[in-house]
């Protein structure tokens, strides 16, 4: 849980970094913050609004200052994308259907490439963001996870990108807790990263108990649930 700066720990002399004494997590240079889908589409006023989605912005802005590495994702759908209810005759948003890779929740049209709706929230301030990863752009395949598309075959390359840069730990934030955040965190853990979800830096859609189910699943798989106050933000 604690990443010690080697110079700061003297066992005999009992000198510890302040963050260690305070029990806070200090993200080192081998940690990355992943900011999932903080886009207008998921903010009240957008096409698939997440209740209080805007409230994650100041929390993410604050903790982002503690990270050397930041990855931002964007849900980036084609028009008439397979995850849109409007693409399936007789289907309404929030119903499900069976696609080639399994069950798919059908959503209102949202986050269409290049629209204002798909833009990042204007108040999001992550100056150290090094990559913006777009997902969900294959017409027939959704991608909640930033690592792997819903067919469970097509990689986004994010794991390789992070591993080649020596990243061992990821902190997942953004929207929505029970869909893109959870799927991203579960894949991160499965792919070998120590994985935290910063709960107060997320908001949920909560469809038919999906939020409880997501937390149970994440706990079972070893994803750690923390609050932004658990992070040492200098
Ligand atoms: C998301 C539903 C559809 C998300 C994306 O970002 O959680 N949810 N597309
Ligand atoms: Zn989507």
UniProtKB/TrEMBL annotation:
Keywords: Hydrolase, Metal-binding, Pyridine nucleotide biosynthesis, Signal. It comes from the Bacteria. GO terms for molecular function: metal ion binding; nicotinamidase activity. Gene3D superfamilies: Isochorismatase-like (3.40.50.850). CDD domains: nicotinamidase. The keyword Ligase does not apply. Its EC number is 3.5.1.19. InterPro entries: Isochorismatase-like_dom, Isochorismatase-like_sf, Isochorismatase_Nicotinamidase, TAT_signal. It is an enzyme of class 3 (hydrolase). Residues 31-225 form the Isochorismatase-like domain. Pathway: Cofactor biosynthesis; nicotinate biosynthesis; nicotinate from nicotinamide: step 1/1. One of its GO terms (biological process) is pyridine nucleotide biosynthetic process. Belongs to the isochorismatase family. Pfam families: Isochorismatase. The keyword Protein biosynthesis does not apply. PANTHER family: LD05707P, PYRAZINAMIDASE/NICOTINAMIDASE. This is Nicotinamidase. Residues 1-21 form the signal peptide.
